Amino acid sequence: MADAGIELPEGYPPAGLYVGAVRVGNHLHIGGHGPVRNDGSMVTGKVGDGVDLQAAQAAARLTGLQMLHTVREELGSLDAVDRVVKVFGMVNCAPGFNNTPAVIDGCSQLFLDVFGDDGVHTRAAVGMAELPFDICVEVEALFLLRDEN
After folding, report:
1. Angle, to 10 degrees, between the axis of helix 100-115 and the axis of helix 53-75?
2. For residue 28, what is the enclosing H or E element?
3. Which of 79, 91, 92, 103 gives 131 a disulfide partner, CB atoms 3.0 to 4.6 angstroms apart?
4. CA 44 to CA 133: how far, in whole Å?
5. Helices in 13-146 by DSSP H: which ranges?
6. How sure is the predictor about 3, in pLDDT bands with cuts at 50, 70 and 90?
7. b/e map of 23-62 (b: 16 or more CB within 10 Å)?
8. Domain edges within the chain
9. Closest CA to 124 of 148, 105, 110
10. Which CATH architecture has domain 33-145?
């Protein structure tokens, strides 16, 4: 990842009574993550009303980086990941904004950049009227782990 200029953020604690990841067999379920910067501030607002597509894609990428931080913390290394299975992306969007797949592409492209062909995944990208703390995106994911982990 460092060769590709990708650095993981510091991470942040869950905002409620849950954990960021749960391992079940050879699957790692990553709970909802948002676009939190290293200084603790969040990327907020509604896509299509104050947040443009490029900013939303960058927020989705940041969210993916936060998720990868959680994976590394949970497993010790991203090398334990065999493939990305599924991504579920939620976009805080203004009425009439329906290009949610393009927003979540920011996260999906990151996973492709990091894992190559093993980053190809199934996905949903849905629009929401509101998200916690007014964040502009929230993403969950499912990872398949290598057998030796």
Report:
1. 40
2. strand 27-33
3. 92
4. 8
5. 53-75, 100-115
6. low
7. eeeeebbbbbbbbbeeeeebbbbbbbeebeeebbbbbbbb
8. 33-145
9. 105
10. 2-Layer Sandwich (3.30)
